[in-house]
Amino acid sequence: MHVLEIAPGLWRWTAPHPDWKPSAGGPDGWERDVGCVYCEAGSAILLVDPLVPSDEEERERFWRALDRDVERVGPPHVLLTCFWHLRSAEDVLGRYPGSRLWAHEDGFPQLGATAAAVTDPIRTGVELPGGAAAIDAGVGAGEVVYWLPSHGALVPADVLLGTADGGVRVCPDDWLDNGLTGDDVRRALRRLLDLPIDRVLVSHGEPVLEHGRAALAAALD
After folding, report:
1. Helices (H), 74-181
2. What is the pLDDT tens value at each position of the chain, 221 positions in all?
3. E strands, 81-136, where?
4. C-alpha angle 190-144-50 in degrees, rounded to nearest 5
5. Is the pTM of this model over 0.70?
6. In sequence order, what are the residues at sequence separation of 6 or more whose Cβ sits closer than 8 angstroms to the Cβ of residue 1?
7. What is the assigned CATH class of domain 2-220?
8. In angstroms, rounded to a whole number, what is the distance separating the alpha carbons of residues 214 and 120?
9. Which of 43, 61, 100, 148 is the most buried (most CB within 10 A)?
């Protein structure tokens, strides 16, 4: 587990994904370690796509730190960017009574029985805690990009990936369904450029920690 404090109240950590295989890597694949976000916004703790480390020592370290935060602030809100990023959401809900799970209702069919654990369905017009917003990623299946205005941060699911040179890129075409292409995604995401983006905290690859809007604009050009 690698933990990075980006700003007061904003952290990103990575942990090895349990389903990763070497065949999933490569230029058009994804790395074993995936990113997750902790955000304090107002009186709320937001956990975006949390993954608890499987290593016993790191797992205990993770829970001890989160226990302290929950005791100080209150039960967390778990935000899913997409249904396949369920990860450790149910572990978090089971540990902290009063915690809540947010996911877009369009992803419920793929969540199956787990959809019953969603306390707060995301749909048009629903307000999220801490001033956060869920923006349709334009690729279907309930995939969203979260906007965290308290920290000027975008948190995408898989539609945007980090690059080796510190930028972002649109996901490969073969990650997309329903005949969509990268150009379709670029058109759908251009509305994000209206936001004052400082950071893009991707799940796959390195995060963009400054000049996030410029990095996004380059990816969507």
Report:
1. 89-95, 108-111
2. 899 999 999 999 999 887 777 766 767 777 889 999 999 998 999 999 999 999 999 999 999 999 999 999 999 999 999 999 999 999 999 999 999 999 999 999 888 888 888 999 998 788 999 999 999 998 888 999 999 999 999 999 999 999 988 899 999 998 998 889 999 999 999 999 999 999 999 999 999 999 999 999 999 99
3. 100-104, 120-122, 133-136
4. 130
5. yes
6. 13, 14, 15, 53, 55, 58, 61, 62
7. alpha beta
8. 33
9. 148
Strands (E), 57-216: 77-79, 100-104, 120-122, 133-136, 144-148, 153-155, 160-162, 168-170, 199-200
Q: Which residues contact 203 (CB under 8 A, 6 or more apart)?
A: 34, 35, 36, 49, 81, 85, 156, 157, 158
Count Cβ atoms below 10 Å from residue 3 Cβ, excluding itself: 15
* Burial profile 79-117: b = 16 or more Cβ within 10 angstroms, e = fewer: bbbbbbbbbbbeebbebbeebbbbbbebbbeebeebbee
- Identify any residues that bridge with 5 across adjacent strands, giving them in sequence order: 11
Distance, in Å, from the CA atom of 167 to the CA atom of 160, rounded to the nearest integer, reads 10
DSSP annotation of 205 reads S
Residue with tokens 């490969």: 172
DSSP letter (8 states) at residue 18:
T
Task: Give me 49's structure tokens.
Answer: 């796509």
Q: What does the domain layout of the chain look like in residue ranges?
A: 2-220
The residue to which tokens 């997750």 are assigned: 36
CA dist 4 and 99 (Å) reads 24
d(CA 162, CA 205): 4
